[in-house]
Amino acid sequence: MTLLILGVLLWVAGHMWKRALPDMRARMGNGGKGVSALIILASVVAMIYGYRMAPVVDLWYPPTWTVHVNNLLVLIAIFLMSPAPRKGKLFNNMRHPQLAGFRAWAFAHLLVNGDLASVILFGGLFVWAVGEVAVINRAEPDWTPTQTGTIAKDGMFLVASVVLLAAIGWIHAWLGPWPFPG
Q1: What is the pLDDT of residues 94-105, one digit of tens each?
Q2: 84 and 112: one domain?
Q3: Residues 50 and 63 occupy one common structural domain
């Protein structure tokens, strides 16, 4: 569990240090982006290995119907992380669509995984995404939405999101459990 917790903490550090230590980050210039990327890459590796090595400590047993809710939330998350909120019409006034999508993804995985390692991983990432919104809003209080796009763009990104969900599901099954109920 230590490696998993370290991975989540590195993820938070890699994303937050720009705002937590702005002077240090500014002095580094473009090199700071590389440092952030390395920290985040190390966090992903630590989270993957930490999660896979963690002992199974069941906290609850999710009902089977939560798989359907999970898949819907993951589809919404993929859509929110796509360019749709910036180029479409439906979510154009949402300030942090990618972080909202990330929270939807993390919450979806909490619904279907009742073990301690999942709570640490997905719960930790969910809390980070909530905190990241607060930190960004405090650091950059002024925000204006981009120009409104079209419903057709939303439709295009929705179709792409469904295709991407299928691809992610196939990879998910290759690495672990099949995510779509039979």
Answers
A1: 899 999 999 999
A2: yes
A3: no
